[in-house]
Amino acid sequence: MTAAREKILESKGFPVLSEYFNELFRSAYFLVFIAVATICGFAFDQEIASIYILLVFFAVNLVFVKDLSFFFLAMVFISIIPMKYGNKPLDGFFVVAYAAIFIVPALFFRFWLYPIKPIAGRNFFPLFVYSVVLVLGGLGSGILLRHYFAFYPIYTVLGLGFLQLALYFLFQNYLTEDPRRSAEHFAKMMCVVGAVCVGLIAYYVLSHIIATKELSLPSDLKWGWKNYISDVMMLALPFAFYFAVRTKWTLPFLLFGCLQYLFILITRSAGGILFGTMMMPFLVVYTLIRTKGKFRVQAAVLFGLALVAVLVVGVWKRAELYELVKRKLDSGGTGRLDLYEIAWARFKEFPIFGVGVGHDHTQYPIMAERFGFIMTYFHSTVFQALGATGLVGLVGYMYMALARLRTYIAKRDFNVFLLIGFLGYAFYSMIDVGTAIPLHFVGMTTFMLVVCERLADMEEMTDVRLKKSFYRTEREVSLDETAARLSARV
């Protein structure tokens, strides 16, 4: 087996193809192509075609490129493409399962050519502890096995726990570029994610204008749509400001960042508006601090004009804003207060391990009838932990969250902007289901975690020579290994 692997790695064609696709996946042209394919699939009801395009390139990535950064983008877009169907049955998407015909062999080839190793990074133990406490959720509560082992509950338990741990190992093994290059590429991908979100919202607004023949915004996005996409944009928005600070294209990236915030407002997602608005002052202040010379003046003028525009629109649309707030309060946060009361009552009844992720409640009979599962999302990180997993789950989650934050915090522009976005997402999840969605939210945050962890590992190396060689490109590693093997034979 080792000889066969060496033969492939030392062949003339494989290293050339590997280097070609490695550079392709990082090129601006490819990122634009993937973004356009995603938006078109969403807009023209060709979701299956778009998903297959992403999966074909993912298979190519598995076979030819050791670095798996593209998996992050594919994972996010595959979850976004069918977003407009909300909680409708996705029976028509069953044909995506046929992608296993080429994905499974590609996976086997990948793990054979580049065997995966369990890497006990600094976040391994917190992730492992949280994985265990999720499985224990509901212990002693009398939860029915058919509820515990229903598809969505067991997917959520394993997805938030052991699947996250598996993704952690996967990214630890297969993010092979220099951590600084990985961080820059991740920031670019997040900008592409933000651009796609803007494109999808713009499509929805234009569709409304064409259908009604009125120049107005839709009164609301479809159920689940607005909150879902706003939560994605929480994580993506700060990286426009990151590139405003880090590149000479300060003004274009500032405009792009402000545009994303505007489109969060357009969604009328109460949580998106609230936490997006809370994020903006931190983004503005840090951007002004880190921007120099004439660009700082441009940034200050732009932010000033944007603030005036927001105030003018706020005064102009004050009646609509009042109605939005009133509607949310009257509905108890669209039923969220009722869910929090249920979670608190179940926690008091079963304080140690909660009632389990598969908890059944009569508020969800329609969903159970439609999808064949029964599961209560408590729409809050804290109440989800308390109600579903009790004190043990809450402590386990806090342990994992604090370890994650410790990894994110660093005196580096990349970390500061990433942290602002992550905190926006985390606070939003206090009133929504973001932290309870395995793919893609947990996948996104796990990728972010590994990128930051590897940056920290490199920074902690005191030997300059070791730091420079800590991560080399796949091509450099391949050439060095080949040279060593040839020397050994001689």
Question: How do the strands and helices of this protein lay out in sequence?
Answer:
Blueprint lengths: L1 H9 L2 H12 L3 H16 L3 H18 L4 H12 L19 H14 L10 H13 L8 H4 L2 H10 L1 H13 L4 H34 L12 H12 L1 H9 L3 H18 L2 H21 L3 H23 L1 H13 L5 H14 L15 H7 L9 H28 L4 H16 L9 H22 L4 H6 L4 H16 L1
Helix pairs in contact: 3-4, 3-11, 4-5, 4-6, 5-11, 5-22, 7-10, 7-20, 10-22, 11-12, 11-13, 11-14, 11-22, 12-14, 12-15, 12-21, 13-14, 13-15, 13-21, 14-15, 14-16, 15-16, 15-21, 18-20
Question: Could you describe the 3D structure shown?
Answer:
The chain is an all-alpha fold and 490 residues long. The chain has helices spanning 2-10, 13-24, 28-43, 47-64, 69-80, 100-113, 124-136, 145-148, 151-160, 162-174, 179-212, 225-236, 238-246, 250-267, 270-290, 294-316, 318-330, 336-349, 365-371, 381-408, 413-428, 438-459, 464-469, 474-489.
In whole angstroms, how far apart are the ends? 22 Å
Which structural class matches the secondary elements?
mainly alpha
Q: Give the averaged pLDDT, no decimals.
A: 85
Strand content: under 5%
- The count of β-strands is 0
Number of helices: 24
**Radius of gyration from the alpha-carbon trace, in angstroms:** 24 Å
Catalogue the unreliable spans: 365-369, 471-490
Largest sheet: none
Helical proportion? over 70%
Dominant shape: globular
SSE sequence, one letter per element: HHHHHHHHHHHHHHHHHHHHHHHH
Summarize the structure.
By secondary structure, the protein is an all-alpha fold. The protein has 24 helices and no strands. α13 packs parallel to α15.
